[in-house]
Design brief:
Chain lengths: ~850, ~110
């Protein structure tokens, strides 16, 4: 076994040994001949060589003995592969480009998914970190107000150590020299910092003493915040700053990149005790821990189930339907498995592209079939020939993979930046937008897979035929090319007719709409306003009043023309909700809804064209009214009047509201005011107490950006717990969405273009090839006096029948979707026409050539 | 015996000759070819080009093992040595060869 391994793996040394033994043998033999037969050295050496026999065949059989023969064969195959590719540059270029795009998409998605599903957190022993959460059996949601449960778990659970709780809060940090900054911080229990593996860059971490009731309040700050707010000043330790209303001293600075649990920049003690709260109340918590040595997640789950059932029995009112659940943090959102499944569409795209390349190569392989049959007849094994075709394909897919990696390297980071911007989120601190080693390995696998598909399909077909068939059957295609070509052309045309219009329409939707009336976005200032109770304080009931006060003061500002509010910034990551429509029978549709102030429509320059606008009394909780976009109403209710009809947001949806909403008005011109991105057709009155944050809009007479500092000061003046974020002119705020739309439109367009290019090339290659196959037949018919016009007619009618069949199949595919709109129908017709034209051109050249040749030549044609 | 029949007869028995030769002492490839020729008094001549592939095959099967050594006049050479398994295999091969040879002789005598 060892000897075998040595022979196999020590390839280089085996080669060297082989040569050295050969030389030794020849020298010994030469010396013997000189010694015993008295020959001169030169003649002796010649004789020794002759007696040894063919040295190349010696080397071959030595290599074969080592199982290495395929290696030198592969090298030759690759060389042949490169040569073939250079010979067909257009085919090669198109194939490589298409494969590159498919690979780039696949690897980008793979990287995104692995980053999210199996993040590298950088916590010690992170594979054993678990999260405990209380599952609400009724709503299937998670109850995070679990201070009582946290204390119980901390004291009773044995299978999890370092059990800790964390509560996220956004703070306004104010320095003694009056500098303001909005920072996302987290209040944590003592064990949490052990869990995160916190080692301060400067100063100290939180200690148990910081949790004493009378201990002075302290905070640790993150590296970025330290630079942003304090300019990286090392004397920051011991400085007293204000967090909301509380004065705290800075005791530590954390190193760069340390932002657990999720992009946090401030760490301060969570001192609350369950004594101060009812069950199921208090701050929302995340509870983490590390599996104790020797313990398993199953054991922890079992232990918690017992505790959970005991709690449920003891406090049926609050905990009757809560069940604690333990999940590994690294797969906390069950994404690991799903993530891998989500790679499948991209794999399928790659397979489709590979199959397309295979189709193109198939036509080429068919022209080489005599060569292949000859090689098989001369003793090449079928395996050997297929391996050669796969090796050729490997050259193409490797080039595609390399280019794809380059695309991904350049595009993935940009796409991710846009993605997070549109999500209005900072990427998780552990998110890495560089390509990873597993990602590159994945690409290598994809290249192999592609090569297997591209090489094996034509290879298997081409080698099925034996030489005797080739000799026995005069002329024509031995690969039954006609039937295969028909199927491939039909499928190719059908897919193009079906999907290219979809891609074009999607891309158009994403591109900026030039017909839309331009909205004067540069005259508006927008931002988010939220109420964040400071550390150690109860939730406040006066939030709505504070927000109303801000609103009053904003309008009173000089230079402000109008101030209005909405529940969120439309266009960004805006989910659709389920809407029930009370129309004869009850129908369910999906649409986006926005809660707005009564004066929002007016302030944004929209017009009520039927019914009425919202009034101040509509804001009262018991008044349920809605205004809908006029275009949406037309689509949903047809010619009937929408005003007076009712809609409802059913329970269990993210926008859950009770009762029916009566449509009181139709609005026109909101889509431009809502901005780029998603279409929002439903509006209902904003009740500030129902939202965690409010988006405010100011229209100003002059430069809106100049009002930003005043807004900051004004908001801070109303209440220190009010936090303002993402303040920008509407122009700037919309830009990321516009950029993302453009980016995805370009990406989609690129994919569409490649499909079009491929479809056209495929149809051309297959049609012209199948006509070329009939050269002999055409030549003989022409020689026998057939009318050239009739010959041409027969050629064209076959090609047109193939393409026509494809067009019909494709239209059937989309008859229920795209083809229903007039624009879609136009696109489908356009693509179909392009296919027909390309098909005709593809027929013409080889048909004319066939008609021109002499009968004797035709007879020779293979 | 002309050259052709000689090679044919040898082809099946090359392994046996190598094993037998190595059972006396470890030897390099050239040495093996010389020894076979000498001990058969020049009747058998090992095809040198096929000797080494055979040695490689035997090594792969674990019947012989090899290592670098020095010849008498201080040249580096690959020395082949019989393993315990090789020695057993030689015994079995010899038995079957003797049976084969006896059978062959019996046939030739009666014919």
């Amino acid at each position: 076994m060892e000897a075998r391994a040595r022979l196999l793996f020590g390839r280089r040394s085996a080669e060297a040994r082989m040569e050295e033994e050969l030389q030794f043998h020849l020298e010994m033999e030469t010396e013997r001949l000189v010694r015993e037969d008295g020959l001169d050295t030169k003649e002796a050496r010649r004789r020794a060589h002759v007696m040894f026999g063919g040295q190349d065949s010696y080397r071959e059989s030595m290599r074969e003995g080592r199982g290495m023969a395929w290696l030198s064969g592969l090298r030759l195959d690759l060389k042949l592969g490169v040569r073939m590719l250079v010979k067909y540059p257009v085919l090669t270029g198109a194939s490589v480009l298409a494969l590159a795009v498919a690979v780039a998409l696949a690897v980008s998605w793979f990287e995104f998914m692995s980053n999210m599903a199996v993040p590298h957190l950088g916590w010690p022993d992170e594979d054993r970190i678990v999260r405990i959460q209380n599952l609400d059996l009724e709503t299937a949601g998670v109850e995070r107000r679990s201070l009582h449960d946290y204390e119980l778990w901390r004291d009773q659970v044995r299978s999890i150590t370092d059990l800790s709780a964390a509560s996220t809060t956004t703070y306004t940090l104010t320095t003694d020299d009056g500098l303001n900054a909005t920072l996302v911080g987290v209040r944590v229990t003592p064990a949490a910092l052990r869990l995160f593996g916190a080692r301060p860059l400067l100063g100290r971490s939180l200690t148990d003493a910081d949790y004493e009731a009378d201990a002075p309040p302290v905070v640790m700050i993150g590296f970025d915040a330290w630079h942003r707010v304090f300019g990286g000043d090392r004397s920051v330790l011991g400085r007293v700053v204000r967090l909301g209303t509380e004065h705290v001293s800075v005791v530590g600075v954390m190193p760069e990149g340390f932002e657990p649990p999720m992009n946090h920049e401030l760490w301060t003690p969570l001192r609350e005790s369950a004594l101060g709260y009812e069950r199921r109340s208090g701050p929302p918590l995340s509870v983490f821990g590390r599996l104790a040595p020797g313990s398993t997640i199953e054991a922890a789950q079992a232990e918690l189930r017992v505790i959970g059932e005991r709690t449920a029995a003891a406090f049926p009112e609050t905990h009757g339907r809560l069940r604690p659940e333990v999940v590994r943090l690294k797969s906390a959102n069950d994404m690991a498995g799903v993530a891998m499944l989500l790679n499948i569409p991209f794999l399928l795209f790659l397979i489709v592209v590979s199959a397309n390349v295979a189709t193109l190569l198939f036509a080429r392989t068919a022209t080489r079939e005599s060569e292949i049959a000859m090689r098989i007849a001369l003793g090449a094994s079928r395996r050997r020939v297929i391996l050669q075709l796969i090796a050729e394909a490997l050259v193409i897919t490797s080039l595609g993979a390399l280019l794809g990696l380059a695309f991904a390297q350049a595009g993935f980071g940009r796409a991710m930046d846009l993605f997070w911007e549109v999500q209005q989120m900072r990427p998780p601190y552990f998110f890495d937008s560089e390509l990873s080693a597993p990602g590159i390995l994945y690409v290598v696998t994809l290249a192999m897979l592609g090569a297997a598909i591209i090489g094996a399909i034509p290879g298997l077909r081409a080698t099925r035929r034996q030489l005797r068939d080739l000799i026995g059957q005069p002329g024509g295609s031995g690969m039954k090319f006609g039937a295969v070509a028909t199927v491939v052309i039909v499928v190719q045309v059908a897919l193009s007719v079906a999907f290219i219009p979809v891609a074009i329409m999607n891309a158009q939707e994403l591109l900026p709409d030039r017909e839309r009336t331009p909205f004067p976005a540069h005259t508006h200032l927008t931002g988010r306003l939220a109420l964040q109770p400071g550390p150690g304080r109860q939730d406040r009931a006066d939030g709505a009043e504070l927000l109303a006060e801000v609103q009053r003061r904003l309008i009173a500002q000089p230079g402000v023309v109008a101030a209005t509010r909405a529940s969120r910034m439309p266009g960004f990551n805006h989910p659709t909700t389920t809407v029930e429509i009370d129309d004869d029978s009850i129908r369910i549709v999906r649409a986006r809804a926005l809660a707005i102030d009564p004066d929002f429509l007016d302030a944004m320059g929209a017009r009520i064209i039927a019914g009425r606008a919202f009034s101040d009394t509509d804001v009262m909780a018991d008044s349920r009214v809605a205004i809908v976009d006029e275009a949406w109403a037309r689509e949903t209710f047809g010619a009937r009047n929408a005003v007076g009809r009712r809609i409802r947001f059913p329970a269990g949806t993210d926008n859950q509201q009770d009762g029916w909403y009566e449509i009181v008005g139709l609005v026109e011109g909101m889509s431009s005011a809502v901005g780029p991105g998603s279409y929002v057709p439903l509006f209902h009155p904003l009740r500030p107490e129902e939202h965690e944050a409010i988006q405010f809009y100011l229209r100003t007479e002059d430069q809106p950006a100049a009002h930003a500092p005043q807004v900051h000061a004004l908001v801070a003046g109303v209440d220190p717990d009010l936090v303002i974020s993402d303040i920008a002119t509407l122009d700037d705020a919309w830009r990321p969405v516009q950029r993302a739309d453009r980016f995805f439109a370009v990406a989609l367009g690129l994919v569409g273009l490649i499909i079009v290019l491929f479809a056209l090339m495929g149809v051309y290659a297959l049609t012209s090839f199948s006509v070329a196959q009939r050269t002999r037949e055409i030549g003989i018919r022409a020689a026998l006096g057939a009318n050239p016009r009739r010959i041409l007619a027969s050629i064209f009618s076959r090609a047109l029948a193939q393409i026509g069949l494809g067009i019909i199949a494709g239209m059937l595919l989309v008859s229920l979707t795209v083809a229903r709109s007039p624009e879609g129908l136009r696109l489908v017709a356009g693509v179909a026409a392009a296919m027909v034209i390309v098909g005709l051109i593809a027929c013409t050249l080889p048909a004319l050539r066939a008609l021109r040749i002499q009968p004797t030549e035709a007879l020779r044609a293979e | 015996m002309n050259a052709r029949t000689q090679t044919d007869a040898l082809r099946g028995s090359l392994d046996l000759l190598i094993l037998k030769t190595l059972s006396l002492e470890p030897m390099h490839g050239w040495g093996i070819s010389q020894r076979v020729q000498q001990s058969s008094r020049g009747v058998l001549e090992v095809n040198q080009g096929s000797l080494y592939p055979a040695l490689q095959r035997l090594e792969k099967e674990g019947l012989v093992t090899s290592e670098w050594g020095r010849t008498d006049n201080n040249r580096r050479a690959r020395y082949y040595r019989l393993t315990a398994r090789g020695r057993r295999a030689l015994g079995e091969e010899l038995e079957s060869w003797k049976r084969f040879a006896a059978g062959l002789e019996a046939v030739l005598r009666t014919a």
